[in-house]
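DM from R.C. (forwarded with permission)

"hey, sorry to bug you on a friday — could you get me a structure for this? deadline for the figure draft is monday and I only need the backbone to look sensible"
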Amino acid sequence: MENKDLFSTVSSDLAEFFGPVDLISRWYPFDFTTYYEPEMGAPLFRRIMAFKALIEQKQLSDIKVTTNSLEQRHSEEDKRKINIDPGYMAHERFVLATGKNFAHRIYIGKGMYADLTLIFQKGDFVTLPWTYPDYAHEHVLSYLRQVRKKYVVDFKERCNL
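My reply, with the result:
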């Protein structure tokens, strides 16, 4: 099964855990690194999903544990066929979860770290020296702007602002 074919199954699995999907990006070629190719093959593609439910930031480590279990469920011969990087959008930042420590990552429990990927300043996202190149690319930034716009509306409704 090609990785693109697996998306339908995995998106259904994710919706079971996290509720209805709100926005889904188009397919983006994952051509900024070859890091995952030995495990997953090539060519690789990225697709980003935003869920309707808003989460508490403190849930990120539990969410990453859940997505890691989904990666394992869909693995073959101890090789992942998918890589799921959960994160959250806030007014001022976009954060991803990872199991890999580094100087700019903050430990959030359960072997997981929060990676400040983008900050939102003066009306747009700003990349950081460690922002992955695919998250700095305009096609991903354009999608994340849509997600943030929807998040701001949903947050105001949730808080009755």
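R.C.: lifesaver. The radius of gyration is 16 Å.
me: no worries. The CA atoms of residues 86 and 103 lie 20 Å apart.
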